[in-house]
Amino acid sequence: MSTLLPSSAPAGAVLRVNVLEQCQLDCGYCRPGTATPTANQERLSSEHYARLARALQGLVRKVRFTGGEPLLRPDFVEVVSAFRAGLPGVALALTTNGARLLPKLDALVDAGLDSATVHVDSLRPDRYRALMGGGDLFAALEAALEAKAALSCVKLNVVVQRGLNEDELGDFLGWSARTGIEVRFIELMNTGSARDFTRAHFFSREEMLSMLAVHGAVDTLPRRHPGDPATLHAVAGVTFGIISSDSTPFCGACDRLRLSPGGELRGCMYERAGAPLGPLLRAHAPLADLRRLLTFACSQKRSYHPSREGDPAPFSMAQRGG
Fold it and tell me: What does pTM read for this prediction?
């Protein structure tokens, strides 16, 4: 049975804006190279985003920029500025692999970015490169530390993979204790594009908690917001999150909307097709028309999670914004 979003959710929705599908890395569970990227001329522009932001006033509590890797987009700072101008009271967040964060950090702060989440799957340089298909671990960690000093909140995302990095959970907790940056451990999700990889390396929330219990009693904390995807826990005074979309879906409280680079608006990652917001933006439709579509999308949001709808049509994580 599909689940409609609670009626109170539209005023506090989180919009995940996938600004492009490309990424310079090649994680085994994501494989952005398997997705056909949106052509440059078909992507929404910063001007489109500026009009969208005005139409979103009162409908969202947060906008998160995702990809692919958002910082590969040359005009990304202008995109952030467009949302800040249209949504002055809304939190603006970025999910990034961190490779290009440090050189653009000051400009992003000036543009109005509030927080960042840096994706790091290993604290061992050789393993990091193997798991993430390249990249520089120390550059990503340095970017996270510098961002912590400049932004209101910085977190570290870790996709936990059996036989590949689950033995580092304690190391990540230690790094979090030393730096003050909260770590979120993430279960692999079955998107269909890396089915065999996911089956071979899936490591559940319960297994994570059991492994972390060797470091001390695990306390469960309340979510900071009912719609947050991560359950919160603490071991020896160190708070961490776990996002367990597969083993414990949180569809009933989900308040996420997802916008593709070309302007397709989905209420669920697994939804096959979304509302065509892009054509309205390109046609310079009145803000009232944009707002009607956005309000309707919020009111009709429901879950298409595999536990409810069966196997989804395959898609890459980069296509849906992670």
Answer: 0.93
| Nearest to 218, CA basis, from 227, 206, 229 | 206
The answer to whether 139 and 99 have CB atoms below 8 angstroms apart is yes
Distance (Å, whole) CA 135 – CA 151: 23
Helix H or strand E encompassing 120: none
Distance CA 118, CA 217 (A): 27
pLDDT, averaged per 10 consecutive residues of the chain (322 residues), comes to 36 89 90 73 96 95 96 98 97 98 98 98 98 96 98 98 98 98 94 80 96 95 91 96 86 88 89 89 95 86 69 71 70
The 3-state DSSP class for residue 191 equals coil
Closest CA to 143 of 161, 112, 122, 116: 116
Contact predicate 278/269, CB 8 Å: no
Question: Structural domains in the chain?
Answer: 9-155+252-320 (3.20.20.70)
Q: What are phi and psi of 207, to 5 degrees?
A: -65, -40
Task: Give Cα 24 to chain centroid, integer Å.
Answer: 17
DSSP state of 56: T
Give the integer Cα–Cα distance in Å for 23 and 33: 8
Structure-token pair, residue 102: 């440090």
